[in-house]
Write a structure and sequence with these properties.
419 residues, mainly alpha, 2 domains, 0% strand, globular, disordered C terminus, transmembrane transporter activity, MFS_trans_sf
C-alpha cells in the first residue's frame, strides 16, 4: 500500500507540472507575452526566445551543483519542494503582468521555468526507488501518459477563460488562467510532499563551497568518462542539435500558429488537444517500432517526420494543413524522446548508468535547449518573418541527423570504450 501511494503521488506530480509546460511554455503565455505584453511587435519573438534560452542555460549550470548537494545532504524532497514553490509563485505573479511590462514578465518567467525544469532533476531521480528495474520503462511511460492527460485537463479547464482570445481585450481572463494554472500545479503536486520522506539527512548546510567544488569535479569526471565512448559522444552531440530544434518548435508553435496563420484561440486549444492525443499514440506505436528496428533507425524516422513538419508548416497554406502538420508533430514528439532515451541506454555502460544519465537528463538535456530559441527569435525579429525563423531550424535537424548516422548502434556492454 505504501509503495502504491508513492507511485500514485509520483505520477500525480507529472500530471501537475504539465499544466505549467502547456500553459506557460507552449500555449497561453507565449501568445500573451508576444501579443499583449510586447504589443505584437517583432522584437517579442527575440525576447521570448532569449527568455527560454536564459532559463534553460541557468538550469544547466546549477543542476549538477544542486544534484550533488541533494545527494550529499539527503534532502532531495526539500530541493524539489523549493523549486516547485518557485515555479508556482512566479507563475501566479505573472497574472499581474500587463502591456509594456516585458522586463517584469521575463524575470518572472525565467524564475518560473527554472523552478519547473530544475524540479524535474529531483523528481526524475525518484523513479528507481519506487519500482523494480524491470518496470522502470513502464512506469516512466505511465508518467508521460499522466503528463499528457494533465495537459488535456488544463486545456479543458482553461478553455472558457481563453475562448475570448489571448489579447488585451481579454487580458483579465488570460491573467486569471495563469493564476489557476499555478493553483492546479500546487494542488496536484502536493501529495508527493506528503507521502515521500527524506532519508539519511545530514546535519549542516545543504549548499556550501564544498558542494559546489564537488559537483564541478563530478561533471568534469563524467565528461572525461563519456569521451572514452566515441559512439556515445557522437550521439550526445547529435542529440544536442536535434533536441534543440524540437524544443524550439514546441516553444514557438502557438506564436507561429496565431501570428503567421491567424489561428483563433479556440482553434489553438483544439489544435493542442489533438497534438497531445497524437503524442500519446506516437509514444505507444514507436515504442513497438523501436523494439523491432532499434532506437537509431527510429530516431532517424522521427527526425525525417520533424523535417517534414517544418517544411509543411513553411510551404502549406491554410489552417487545415497546419492541423495535419501538428498531428504529425505530435506523433514524433513523444517518440523522439522515448527513442533517444533508449539509444542512450544502449550506448551507456552498466557501470556508469546513473552518472551518464544524470548528465544526459540534467546538464546536457537543459543546455540543448539554449541555441534554438535564441536563433529563432533573432531570425524572426531581424527578418520580420517567422517562416524564415522556422526554416533556420532545419539546419539543426539536418546536422543532428548527419551526426547520428555516424553513431554505431551497439550495446556499450559488449562494445568496449573504443568501439
Amino acid at each position: 500500500m505504501t509503495l502504491k501511494r508513492h507511485v500514485f503521488s509520483w505520477l500525480l506530480f507529472d500530471f501537475a507540472n504539465t499544466s505549467f509546460s502547456v500553459m506557460m511554455v507552449t500555449f497561453a503565455f507565449p501568445l500573451y507575452f508576444k501579443n499583449v505584453i510586447c504589443g505584437g511587435e517583432a522584437y517579442g519573438d527575440a525576447l521570448w526566445g532569449a527568455s527560454i534560452s536564459v532559463s534553460m542555460l541557468l538550469v544547466a549550470v546549477v543542476s549538477p551543483v544542486l544534484g550533488a548537494s541533494a545527494d550529499y545532504s539527503g534532502r532531495r524532497k526539500r530541493f524539489l519542494f523549493s523549486f516547485t514553490i518557485l515555479s508556482v509563485a512566479a507563475t501566479a505573479l505573472l497574472s499581474f503582468a500587463g502591456p509594456g511590462m516585458a522586463v517584469y514578465a521575463i524575470l518572472l518567467f525565467v524564475l518560473a521555468n527554472i523552478g519547473f525544469e530544475g524540479g524535474l532533476v529531483f523528481y526524475d531521480s525518484y523513479l528507481k526507488e519506487i519500482t523494480s528495474e524491470k518496470s522502470i520503462g513502464r512506469l516512466s511511460g505511465y508518467g508521460f501518459a499522466m503528463g499528457y492527460l494533465g495537459a488535456l485537463s488544463i486545456l479543458l479547464l482553461m478553455r472558457p477563460l481563453l475562448e475570448g482570445g489571448i489579447s488585451a481585450l481579454n487580458a483579465s481572463n488570460v491573467q486569471m488562467s495563469f493564476l489557476l494554472s499555478a493553483l492546479f500545479f500546487a494542488l496536484f503536486a502536493a501529495p508527493i510532499f506528503l507521502v515521500f520522506r527524506d532519508e539519511n539527512k545530514r546535519v549542516g548546510s545543504i549548499l556550501s563551497v564544498e558542494a559546489v567544488l564537488r559537483s564541478l569535479r563530478e561533471v568534469r569526471h563524467t565528461v572525461t568518462h563519456i569521451m572514452n565512448y566515441p559512439d556515445l559522444s557522437r550521439f550526445l552531440l547529435a542529440y544536442f542539435f536535434y533536441n534543440d530544434a524540437i524544443l524550439t518548435v514546441i516553444a514557438f508553435s502557438s506564436i507561429y500558429a496565431q501570428n503567421t496563420l491567424h489561428f483563433t484561440t479556440s482553434e489553438l486549444i483544439v489544435f493542442f488537444m489533438l497534438v497531445q492525443t497524437t503524442a500519446i499514440a506516437g509514444s505507444v506505436i514507436f515504442g513497438f517500432v523501436t523494439d523491432k528496428i532499434g532506437p537509431k533507425r527510429t530516431i532517424v524516422i522521427t527526425l525525417c517526420i520533424w523535417i517534414a513538419v517544418v517544411l509543411g508548416a513553411i510551404v502549406l497554406e491554410g489552417k487545415e494543413s497546419f492541423f495535419m502538420v501538428g498531428m504529425l508533430a505530435g506523433m514524433s514528439m513523444g517518440s523522439s524522446q522515448a527513442a533517444s532515451r533508449s539509444m542512450m541506454a544502449r550506448l551507456t555502460p552498466p557501470s556508469h548508468v546513473t552518472e551518464f544519465f544524470g548528465f544526459y537528463d540534467g546538464t546536457f538535456g537543459k543546455a540543448s535547449a539554449v541555441a534554438g530559441p535564441l536563433v529563432f527569435g533573432l531570425v524572426s525579429s531581424g527578418a520580420g518573418s517567422q517562416k524564415a525563423a522556422l526554416a533556420s531550424l532545419l539546419v539543426f535537424f539536418v546536422v543532428g541527423m548527419v551526426l547520428l548516422t555516424r553513431v554505431r548502434s551497439v550495446s556499450a556492454l559488449g562494445s568496449g570504450a573504443g568501439k
